[in-house]
Specification:
Layout lengths: L2 H8 L4 E15 L4 E14 L8 H10 L18
Antiparallel strand pairs: 1-2
Length: about 80
């Protein structure tokens, strides 16, 4: 799979609506004995499904595997809702 090409194609997917906000929080690391700043987007985004065809296998799988930094702590969760 050409993940670089898929990443570039993602920039052309139209967004119909977005209600996103940044949420900052901290977590304690016992390994580092320190509070660590974390943050991420929280909310909803509506995308145009016509251009999502090449992304579907990864979007579908990501609902259960989560994605990105902090996934081992339960971050990166999302779910797909189809209209």
């Amino acid at each position: 799979m050409d993940f670089a090409g898929l990443s570039r194609a993602g920039w052309s997917v139209p967004t119909r609506a977005a209600r996103l906000r940044w949420q900052d929080w901290t977590r304690y690391s016992s390994r580092q004995d320190a509070l660590l700043p974390m943050g991420g987007l929280v909310g909803e985004i509506a995308l145009d499904g016509a251009d999502l065809e090449p992304f579907w296998p990864y979007l579908w799988l990501g609902q259960w595997t989560h994605a990105g930094k902090g996934a081992v702590m339960g971050l990166g969760r999302y779910r797909l809702l189809m209209e």
